[in-house]
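Supplementary Methods, section 5.1.

A reviewer requested that the exact input to the structure prediction be made available. We therefore reproduce it here, unchanged from the version used in the analyses.
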Amino acid sequence: MRKIFLISFLLLSTGNVLMSQTIAPKDTTSLQEILVTAPVKTNVALTPLDVTIVTSKEIEESTETSLLPVIQNHVPSFFMSERGMEGYGVSGGSAGTVNIRGVGGGNSVLFMIDGMPTWAGFYGHANPDTYSVNGVEKVEIVKGPSSLLYGSGAMGGSVNIITKKQSKEGFSGRARAMFGSYYTSKFNLMTGYKKDKFSAVLAGQLDRSNNNRPNSAFWLADEYIQLQYSASNHWNVGTTVDMTQSHANNPGTIQTPLENMWTEIFRGNAAIYAKNSYKNVNGGVQAYINWGSHDLDDGNTPGKPENHYIFHLRDYNMGFSIFETINPWINNDLSVGIDFQHWGGHVWNTEKENVFDPENTGKAYSRSENKYNENEIAGYVMMQQGFIRNLLSLNAGVRLQHNSQYGNIWVPQAGFIVRPASQSEIKFSFGKGFRSPNIRELYLYAPANHNLEPEYLLNYELSYRQTVANGKLNFGAALYFIDGKNMIQTQQVDGRPLNVNTGKFKNKGFELDATWHFLPKWQLYAGYAYLHTNKSSLLYAPKNKLDISLAFSPSNFDFSLENNNIWSLNNGNPDGRVSYSLVNFRGAYTCPVKVPVTLFVKVDNIFDKKYEVIYGCPMPGITVMGGVELKF
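The structure derived from this sequence is encoded token-by-token as follows.
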């Protein structure tokens, strides 16, 4: 362990690697007409990475309770799998697989809450049902590897969920209730309080639905609390806790139906932090834990005997980050940091008559018990330097990560930003992304191989963004090339299946997006993504994706019409790829009273399109939800 800490200390103290930033750091910057609060480690909007921000306004106007559909409609290259009207689930037949530019799957896109990684410590996957809109201010999506800052799991990109902070003195809040198709009901309550240097936010959410298929009922509850205290003009401390409970029934696919398959999940995230902000120095320290308790029945084929055991998982993912950014001279930022992570868990099966063992002895295993854990520690350094009145910025950095299983891995990143004209920006970046093998791949089941090494890819991207007409028109384009190697695949070795590092892939494509305020009360948005991959078996990554929305806001009304188009999607259908087009409507009216009350309705899949995102799992036809929201 002393050797690990020595490596990180040497990396932090000797890294004088060039990296750029356009200006000396500030708390906020303007990106696509959106106010961007500096994230925990650095403001990625000022690096050459391709970043999209989904704002609080866009989240609220969507009337969604899950974050993933909101992100999908605002990020051209982001796509997720779905299996029904509500819920994503875990285990066999689950949904919520996320791809960015065709990279994703298990845990290749890193989800975070305020910079805290939230993947499950045993199987390594994200838990999409926990990513609700409850307590969320905005979402920061990095398209392309951000492993320099965040390490393993950010190989294909990162999604940082920024939570709400109470800025208004006294009490304020919001209550919302929704009802609609398939006996679906959704309730949300959020309140905040601020007095002098202390602030708090408390939020709760409850969703229930019978879902669009028989025997697929789903419910979810989420609770969130945040406390923050400004100890001085330069320091603030705080803590956040977010917990989610869900139950989902899974009827299987049309081709292979199931009975008695259910999952019960409890997941929690907690963090405590201290942050500093001075004229030329800012940073902080954060400690966190993500934990989970999963119980599930794998179900049985109709007409066959019921499964005799229950699967149990208890996992954790904990660690800390220390980070600081200094400005040694004009237009220069030097950022250094240390990250430590300990993750693992415990899986076992019990016979059904012993499920409710009051002493939790775990007797009568129907299969062997497994307990494993891993440790990772990393140090990173990056420098950002602006030249010629910030018309040019150079950017470079490196990360050294040590894993208790596979040893060391180096992660470089470099790029530049050019501003040829006012409100015009050209970015180029080169970066490496990687993913550590998870415990399942290393130690569990027949293909396990404890000699696995990390997967990695090299990413090259060029992007351009321009704002014209006094901010009424904002548009951008991006080109990328991704070369993935060392991917973990299961092959037959000496007559048995074995996980090995042999896989390769190449993804390339482009993205276009534009937002146009063509009249005072009208706005048009369009986003298009094209993906070409040499990996024909790649699931849930469409070749073409086009999202168009038209919004009209007269007086106290708000209306929007959305068109979501998917072409050439591999959803597992053996007969070939699928395509579909959906049209959705949103309408709201805010009563002009002292305490604002908003009535709203949303209609999805207006033309009752029949389609499947996951083969064998029909998606709902036309669905209607209506509700009321009170702000106080």
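The longest strand covers residues 496-519. These observations are discussed further in the main text.
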